[in-house]
Design a protein that fits this description.
heterodimer; A: 554 residues; alpha+beta; 12 helices; B: 254 residues; mainly alpha
């Protein structure tokens, strides 16, 4: 018979095991911890807004393995296009590298494109041939731009016009951007099809584009007027813009030069130097834009991937090329991780490599350095941070592209060659719902989801501002002030303005009486003091006279 | 005479505040320097600085207090005040300044009264005003700081009996002297810290050597060792003194 001690030990052990199991079940299964930034700019733990749904590889799509995919794009029809940059076609020439893969929303393969057909642009081919004969372009360049296959495509964009998808590919090493359609889908395993080329966008004339600078398109996008914007790493003047027909129109959306110490010093020396001396100085140039996206209202968002620069990390440009995200009142924007961290001999500061703007205006920024996605609402308020560097599901090696569709966010990893699908958590959907209501101006309807968000995460800064606005709109200024306190200065200012007005109006009689009493009191006091002083002086004079009665010289 | 100068000590700062130039002269003439009032003013300066960090309205609070730390405020007020006094005294006694340490201290403290009053007004205003009305707060702070500077110049001029250019020059040099004093202070503190670290490392060394002993016992041993060292030094010194005395006696005898 086991002793009581032993029984007790067994029961305890069982209980402990149960507790361990339960806690391991309850423990978050994400390899990253959600966090957010508070009013002081310090990171605080937060609920995850997005968790991993699944990870899709090339094999899941049915196209073999991917190799260094560098871009992906969701067309308006919901099809996913992938630029598989380093793929080697089985029967390709030496200069053939890369393919375009198209799948539907559920990652079912639609077609792949490895080769192009130039029969649709015979006029252009003839023109280039004559240019080759006159020596305007070299044989090597001609071979590149008329290459029948891709050579490291790094950017893909799909423009849907009346149901027809035109695929634009930034064909990096071929120095061109090709626009093509796919009419017939192949019957083999990979559904290999041929792209029928519509337009080819190539290096502009030497008069418009410095011949010594390379023309390697890295990303491409098309606006509503079918202008083609090409992002080139070697150009600091912004994105190159081509018309629909392929004529070069100029540059768009250059960054500003960051005001570093060196730049300021140069500006100072330029005041002193002669023109010849100034010419020889090192010119300060802005950092090139690294990626862009376009929203449904034709605003173009550009991002800058730079370790050092802080200016113009994210810009929202209107058609005139003016940045909308500057000088909006008191706020100044920061994107990515606010702090530069030094850890184990490496400096970590955000390098935003890709941007995606979803249909409802939510902005997803992809940070190359930390592998994190930073999600902002359309007023640049940080919503969620998720992802990270690592080997587990939901973390990455080298992130290349981010896209969003519906409630999901997709991240393309170029080293792991996979697409990670993040789905919204309940908390995420609550916040998004609240933001949507809030941005429509329905502050009171947004109150309930904001309160729910606060119940789940009391660190969630935006919820306080949302609730403050709700109460401000209701006219409950006292509560609004409480929510805005150390959360929003402008909100607090507005609430306090109304509160103060009400306070003065309600207590006007009290104020009036106090002021009246004070005035009367001061008057009475001063007259009384004057009287006392006069009496004292009279007494002193009297004393003085009495004391000096006998003396004549006073 | 319009003003009765036989007033209690606490009234002097306000009198000086209203009469920036002849006020200090009167103070000097009446020899009414009062250290107690000066110390109270310094204490008030410290309290008001703490209050302005904690009680300034949210709209105007640039300090952004998340974790309140009192040490910077102590340094900003009390330490700076006394380094100013010491630095000024140390310099000006060498250059024909007539001020004693006490007089400099009192004059400097009295000159700070407008600044303190301005801070109090600003704390109250910042809780009543909107962001668009910040001009009032800036106005108050500018005026009171200017007033304090004028008082300080006047006070230093009077206490040392300098001309105005000489006063300004020595005030500037005093600031340099303050920097030197503060650097030396920091050096001293870090030196003491190293001594502390040295003693602490000996303690941990002992702890590892005699790990079977109780830490409290170790402390006693440590104190004992120190006491023994001190005792040996003292004994040696007294022996040496005795030896000296004996020597001298011998000399006297011979």
């Amino acid at each position: 018979m086991p002793s009581i001690k032993r029984i007790a030990a067994r029961v305890t052990a069982a209980a402990m095991a149960a507790v361990t199991l339960m806690t391991s079940v309850a423990y978050a299964d994400e390899p990253y911890d959600g966090y957010n930034y508070d009013w002081w700019g310090d990171p605080v733990p937060s609920q995850n807004g997005y968790v991993v749904d699944k990870v899709i590889t090339g094999a899941d799509i049915g196209v073999g393995s991917l190799s260094e995919p560098s871009d992906m794009f969701f067309s308006d029809l919901g099809d996913l296009y992938l630029a598989d940059s380093a793929y080697k076609p089985t029967s390709g020439s030496e200069n053939a590298k890369g393919r375009i893969i198209a799948t539907d929303e559920n990652f079912q393969l639609k077609f792949t494109v490895e080769s192009l057909d130039f029969s649709g642009v015979q006029d252009w081919l003839d023109m280039k041939n004559s240019e080759l004969n006159t020596g305007a372009i070299s044989q090597a360049d001609f071979n590149k731009i008329t290459n029948l296959s891709f050579n490291g495509p790094t950017g893909v964009y799909v423009d849907v016009d009346e149901g027809e998808s035109t695929i634009y590919v930034a064909d990096n090493s071929n120095d061109r951007v090709v626009a093509f359609t796919v009419d017939e889908i192949g019957t083999d395993e990979y559904k290999t099809s041929v792209g029928k080329v519509k337009v080819v966008y190539t290096r502009p004339d030497a008069s418009m584009y410095d011949p010594s600078v390379t023309f390697n398109p890295s990303k491409v996008l098309v606006d509503a007027a079918k202008n083609v914007y090409v992002c080139i790493k070697s150009i600091t003047k912004g994105a190159a813009v081509f018309s629909k027909e392929g004529d070069f129109n100029g540059y768009f959306g250059a960054n500003r030069v960051e005001a570093t110490g060196e730049v300021l010093m140069n500006a100072f020396w330029k005041l002193i130097f002669s023109r010849e001396q100034a010419k020889r100085m090192r010119r300060s140039v802005p950092v090139e834009i690294s990626n862009f996206d376009i929203d449904s209202n034709n605003f173009i968002y550009t991002v800058t991937e730079s370790k050092s620069a802080d200016t113009d990390i994210l810009k929202k440009l209107n058609s005139a090329g003016t940045n909308i995200y500057t000088n909006l009142g008191y706020s100044d924007y920061t994107f990515g991780d606010a702090l530069t961290k030094y850890y184990r001999g490496q400096t970590y500061s955000s390098q935003i490599t890709d941007i995606d703007v979803s249909a409802d205006g939510t902005i997803n920024l992809l940070d190359l350095k930390t592998g994190r996605v930073f999600q902002y609402d359309d007023e640049c308020q940080l919503l969620f941070i998720f992802g990270g560097i690592g080997q587990q599901k939901g973390t990455f090696n080298i992130v290349n592209a981010v896209e969003s569709r519906g409630n999901n966010v997709y991240v393309l990893d170029g080293r792991k060659c996979s697409i990670t699908v993040f789905k919204q958590t309940e908390f995420g959907s609550i916040v998004h719902n609240a933001i949507a209501l809030f941005n429509k101006g329905k502050y009171e309807e947004a109150r309930q989801p904001w309160e729910e968000a606060l119940r789940r995460d009391s660190n969630y800064w935006l919820a306080y501002i949302g609730l403050g606005n709700a109460y401000l709109n209701e006219g409950d200024y006292d509560t609004a002030m409480k929510y805005f306190y150390y959360n929003s200065k402008s909100g607090y200012n507005d609430a306090f303005k109304s509160w103060r007005m009400n306070f003065i109006r309600d207590n006007f009689t009290v104020f009036a009486i106090i002021i009246l009493v004070l005035l009367v009191g001061i008057y009475v006091l001063s007259t009384w003091r004057n009287k006392v002083r006069a009496r004292k002086r009279a007494e002193q004079e009297k004393l003085f006279k009495e004391r000096n009665k006998g003396k004549e010289d006073v | 005479m319009r003003f009765n100068l036989d007033m209690p000590a606490w009234k002097w700062p306000f009198y000086i505040m209203r009469h920036p130039f002849e006020g200090f002269e009167d103070l000097r003439w009446k020899k009414a320097y009062n250290m107690k009032v000066a110390l109270v003013i310094v204490a008030l300066l410290f309290i008001v600085s703490v209050c302005s960090e904690l009680m300034t309205g949210f709209l105007f609070n640039t300090a952004a207090v998340k974790i309140f730390n009192i040490v910077p405020i102590i340094i900003r007020t009390i330490v700076i005040f006394f380094t100013w006094v010491i630095g000024n005294w140390a310099l000006c006694t060498l250059f024909d300044g007539e001020g004693t340490m006490k007089n400099i201290c009192v004059n400097t403290a009295y000159a700070l009264v407008p600044y303190i009053i301005g801070q109090v007004i600003n704390i109250i205003l910042s809780n009543c005003l909107l962001r668009t009305e910040s001009a009032f707060i800036t106005f108050v702070s500018y005026v009171t700081i200017l007033w304090t500077v004028v008082l300080l110049i006047s006070g230093m001029k009077t206490v040392h009996q300098y001309s105005i250019p000489k006063t300004l020059l020595f005030m500037l040099i005093t600031i340099l002297a303050m920097v030197v004093i503060l650097i030396l202070l920091v050096l001293l503190v870090s030196l003491f810290q190293q001594v502390y670290v040295f003693i602490y490392s000996i303690y941990t060394e002992l702890l590892y050597r005699f790990s079977n002993l109780e830490p409290t016992a170790l402390i006693f041993i440590f104190i004992g060792v120190i006491a023994a060292v001190i005792a040996i030094v003292v004994a040696a010194y007294t022996a040496f003194e005795k030896h000296q005395i004996a020597k001298e006696r011998k000399k006297l005898k011979s």
